[in-house]
Amino acid sequence: MTSSSVVWDRQLIDRYDLSGPRYTSYPTAPQFHNQFGEADLRQAITRSNAAGRPLSLYFHIPFCSTVCYYCACNKIITANRKRAMPYLERLMEEVARQGALFDRSRPVHQLHWGGGTPTYISDDEKRLLMAATREHFNLLEDDSGEYSIEIHPGDMDVATIGCLRELGFNRLSMGIQDFDPTVQQAVNRFNSVEEVRELVQAGRNEGFHSISMDLIYGLPHQTWNTFERTLASIIDLAPDRLSVFNYAHLPHLFKVQKQIDESALPSAEEKLLMMERITEVLLGAGYVYIGMDHFARPDDELAVAQQQGLLQRNFQGYSTHGGCDLVAFGVSAISAIDNVFAQNHKQIEDYQGAIDAGRLPVVRGFELSADDLLRQEVIKQLICQFELDFVDIECRFDIDFKDYFAAELEQLQPMAADGLVALTASGIRVTLAGRLLIRRICMTFDAYINQSRSEIRYSKII
C-alpha cells in the first residue's frame, strides 16, 4: 500500500454506514462461551511453547478516581487508593502462575498497561508490578520492545513520567477526548491543554519513542466548530499517533452512560461532518490515515509498518509487532494464545476468588477452527493493509481462494460496482473511498455476523 489518503464519498457512507465489529479479534468477543476453561488454556500454552513465538503482555488495572460518563471499559470507581493493593497482589500472583507455564526464554516484544487508569496506582506499586513481571517473563532490556501505558492527563503528576520511563515504558497513550469545557463538564472528564502540554514535554525529555492521543467525537454539546478548536490544540501538541473514536451511546449496556443528556448529543449529520473535517484537517497536517479512526505521522513505526506490509491488529488496536501470543492479566482481560481466546472473570470478586482458590481466572473463551484462522487472516490483511493477495492466502492455507470464498466474492460485487473495492484476478484492493468503510468490507468474510444479530449491539462504522 503506497497511498496514505482517503476519499470522503457521502453517498457511499450513507449506503454502507451500518453497525459492525471493530475486529480487534476474529471471531469477536460475543462468540466466546463458558464451556471453555482452564484446561483448554493450559493446552494452548503447551502448543504455544512448542511454537516458540514471542510474547505480548497486557495488564488490566481497572481503577479510576472519578467516572467518565461515556466510558464502556471494565472499571472500578473509587477515591480510596488503598483498594488497589489487594488487587495488585492477586494480579502479581496471576503473573507468577501464568509465568510458570510459559517458556522463560520467550522474549516479550510488546507490553501494555490499560484500564481503567493504570497510573491510578502509586509509583511504588508500579515498581512492584513491573518487578514481578520481570521476574517471571523475559522482558527486553534494550528498549526495542513496544512497551506502552495509558494515562489520564488530568489525574497524574508529571513526575510519574520519569518513573514510567525508568520502568521500561517507551510509549504513552493519553486519553484527551475533548478540550472544550462544556463538553468536559457534560462527560465528567477534565484535562487542560496546559496539563497535556507539560506531560508531552516531559515524555519527550525522557525519550519516549511515541506519544499517542485519543479523541472522541459525538459527545454531548460537540459540534465541528467546538471540536475544531480541540483539534487545533492537538495538532500544536504534535502527537505521533492519534485515535479519533466515534462515541457509541449504549446506556442499556453501560449504565454510566445514563448520566449523559441524550438531547445534547450531536445529530448523525453533525457527527458525519465532524469526522469528514477531522480527516481532512489531520491529512492536511501531515498525518497518515492508518485506518479505523487511526492516524500517525509518516515516520511513526505504525505508518512505516503499514507501508512495509507488516501492520498488525489485536485487542489493543493497531500494532507493529505481529506473530506474538498475547498473555493478558487481570479482571476481564483477554488472552490470544496459539489458536484460542481466553477471557478472565469480569467481576473483581470472581477474579480474586479464582486466584485465591489457586486457579487461573479464565471464565470463558473460544478455540478457533481452521476456517476461523483463515478468515482471521483475510480480515487482518484487509483491515491493516487495505489489500489482499489471493496467492499468499492460498499458499499459507492450502485453499483455492476463489472457490473457497465464492459466496463472499459474489457479495463484494455490489461494493466493487460502487467503488469500495477493486476485484482483480490476483486479489482485492480497498479503494480510497472504501477505506473509511473497511469494517463493512470485512463483515463480508465474517462467518458469524448474521448469527444472533438482534442480540449483539455494535457501534456505527462511522
Summary of the model, kept short:
The protein has helices spanning 10-16, 38-51, 84-99, 123-136, 160-167, 181-187, 193-205, 224-237, 268-284, 301-307, 348-356, 370-385, 390-397, 401-404, 406-417, 438-443; strands spanning 55-61, 63-64, 76-77, 107-115, 138-139, 146-151, 171-177, 210-217, 241-246, 288-291, 294-296, 312-314, 317-319, 325-329, 334-337, 340-344, 362-367, 387-389, 421-423, 427-430. The protein has 462 residues and is of the alpha/beta class. It has 2 domains: 1-27 and 369-462, Arc Repressor Mutant, subunit A (Orthogonal Bundle); 31-326, pyruvate-formate lyase- activating enzyme.
Question: How are the elements arranged and paired?
Answer:
Elements: H1 10-16, H2 38-51, E1 55-61, E2 63-64, E3 76-77, H3 84-99, E4 107-115, H4 123-136, E5 138-139, E6 146-151, H5 160-167, E7 171-177, H6 181-187, H7 193-205, E8 210-217, H8 224-237, E9 241-246, H9 268-284, E10 288-291, E11 294-296, H10 301-307, E12 312-314, E13 317-319, E14 325-329, E15 334-337, E16 340-344, H11 348-356, E17 362-367, H12 370-385, E18 387-389, H13 390-397, H14 401-404, H15 406-417, E19 421-423, E20 427-430, H16 438-443
Parallel strand pairs: 1-4, 1-14, 2-3, 4-5, 4-6, 6-7, 7-8, 8-9
Antiparallel strand pairs: 9-11, 10-11, 12-13, 15-16, 16-17, 18-20, 19-20
Helix pairs in contact: 3-4, 3-11, 4-5, 8-9
